Amino acid sequence: MRNDQTPGTPGVLVDAEIDDLPGAAPTTLPWSGNNKAALAYLGACLVLIGLNLRTVFSSFAAVLPELVSDAGLPSWAVVVLTTVPVTLLGGFAPLAPVLARRFGAEKVLLGAMAVLTAGLILRPADLGGVFPGMGHLPALLAGTAACGAAIALCNVLLPGLVKRDFPHRLGLMGGLYTTAICASAALGAGFTYPVFLSTGEWTSALWVWAVPAAVVLFLFLPVALNQRPVRHQTAKDGVNVWRSPVAWQVTVFMALQAMMSFSVFAWLAPILRERGEDGATAGLMVSVSIVLQMLGSLFAPALATRFRDQRAINTIVALMTGGGFALSIFGPLELGWVWTGLLGLGQGSLTAVALTMIMVRTRDGHTAAHLSGMMQGVGYGLGSTGTLMVGQLHQATGSFAAAGVLFLVVGSLAAVFGYQSGRNRYV
Question: pTM of the entire structure?
Answer without folding.
Answer: 0.84
